[in-house]
Amino acid sequence: MRTYVRRAGLLAVALLVALGGWLAAASPASAHNTLRSTSPADRSTVAAVPAEVVLTFDEPAIAMGTEIVVTGPAGAVGDGPARLVDETVGQPIRAGSPAGDYTVQWRVTSADGHPITGTFTFTASAPGGSSAGPSTGPSAGASSGTGSGSSVGDGSAARTRVPTWVWPVIAVALLLSALTSAGVARRRSRRSR
């Protein structure tokens, strides 16, 4: 009888752990990256086509699946891959891009692995040139140099977070283990009677 009570207690603890794990997993699932600002701002008019479009988020993104497509009067004007630096994602724009209306479509992968997407627009009064470059992009982007600088920041964010799907798997495994243990204990208790 003592063994049965002990097993029932373990089952109750396992159920509480499983419930706690499930609730913990549900919380981060709604905490994807949130776009805080864009440069240029949505629906703004700028003096000239900037050297780079910059999106600022509340937490770092990861490179896998992250993409920014800048389209203007001459079509797509992106110049190379997006650059990830801390909480910002920047897309360089080809020098000499013409004045006019621009659309920025972006997809960023949160550190928890979930993609988020969006679109914004801006208008440039004059074509882009080499002088517009330093004033619009973040200085952190220039100091990072190449994509390897962005992957260092990106990798550390990915290593510090546990994917959301792990917690429900652990909770289910604990629950199944507890149920199996309780079933074995019940069979042994019946045999010993």
Automatic annotation (TrEMBL):
State a single Pfam family of this protein. CopC
Which species is this record about?
Answer: Microlunatus ginsengisoli
Query: Where in this chain does the record put each CopC domain?
Result: 32-123
Entry annotated with the keyword Metal-binding: yes
Where does the source fall among the domains of life?
Answer: Bacteria
Q: Where is the signal peptide?
A: 1-31
Transmembrane stretches, by residue range?
Answer: 165-185
- Segments carrying the region annotation (Disordered) are 122-157
Which subcellular locations apply to this protein?
A: Cell envelope
Principal location class: other
Q: Keywords in alphabetical order, please.
A: Copper, Membrane, Metal-binding, Signal, Transmembrane, Transmembrane helix
Give me the stretches of Low complexity compositional bias.
123-143
Q: Entry's InterPro entries?
A: CopC/D, CopC_dom, Cu-Rt/internalin_Ig-like, Ig_E-set
Question: Under what name is this protein listed?
Answer: Copper resistance protein CopC
| Gene3D superfamilies with a match to the protein in the record | 2.60.40.1220
